[in-house]
Amino acid sequence: MRAEQSxxxxxxxxxxxxxxxxxxxxxxxxxxxxxxxxxxxxxVVRRAKDRRRRFGTTSVVLIGQARLDAEVIWICVPDGEIxxxxxxxxxxxxxxxxxxxxxxxGALTIEALEAAQRAGAAVGSVAPVFSFPTRxxxxxxxxxxxxxxxxxxxxxxxxxLVRSLGGTPLRVDLAxxxxxxxxxxxxxPLMVSAVHAGVEMARHAGLEQSDAxxxxxxxxxxxxxxxxxxxxxxxxxxxxxxxxxGTVELHLRALLKHPRLHKVYLELARHAxxxxxxxxxxxxxxxxxxP
Length: 291
Hints:
eight-stranded mixed β-sheet; alpha/beta; Rossmann fold; 14% strand; 8 strands; 48% helix
C-alpha cells in the first residue's frame, strides 16, 4: 500500500511546476512556463495584495496556504530571502522527497537551499543571464541560463527544463559562481551605470538630456556591436588607444569638479591601460597615477 501511495504521489507531482515569488523574474518565468505548455500548478506570493495578480487560470496563493505539490518548486525571490523561503517550504511541505527545489540567484549557490535538501529535496539553481526590469513578461527564447546542480542527474533535469523554456543551459560550478555573477553584474546593471555616467558628463558639457543620450547612445551601441563582432583590438579607439595622454589629462582636470564622475572615469581608464592595447603606456600611467 505504501509503495502504491508513493507511486501515486510521484505521478501527481510529475512535470508540474510551482513558482514562489511573482516579481519581475517570477512573472516572466510564469509566462514562459505557460507558453511552453508546461503545467504551472500554482504561483505562491507572500503579500496579500499580490494575490490580485493573474497568471491565466493558475491559482495565486499565499505561502501559508500553498500546496507546493509540484515536481519543481522554483523560488524567485531576492537573494537575501531565499534561505528563509526554502525553510518555509520545508516546514510547509514536510517531506520533499521526489521534488526539486530551485532558486534563481546568480550569486548564491545551492547551499542556500539547505533546509529543503534536509527535507529530502533535490536542489539546483537556474539563473537567467538576462535583465528583467519590470513585471511585464519577457520572452525566454534564446536566453542563457546558468545552471548549478546537486548531482549530474539533477543537472540533466534542469538542462532539459531550460531547453523546454526555449533557453540554453550554461554550466556554472559552485566554486566559480560568485565571479560569474560579478561578470554578469558588470555586463548589465554596471553597464547601465557607466552609460549613465557618460550621459551625466555630456549634460555637464551643456547638452540637453535628449542630445546627451543621443551622443552617448550612438557611441555605446556601435562600440558594443564592434566588440562582439570584431573583438577588443578592433573596437578600442580614441585617446587611450592612440596614447594621447594630454587629452586624458584634460578630461581628468575637467572632471575634478565632479568627484564621483572623476572616480568612475579614472578607474575605467586604469583598467583600459592595464588590460587593453594602448600606445604611450608609460605616459598614460603617469597621468592616471597610482591605483
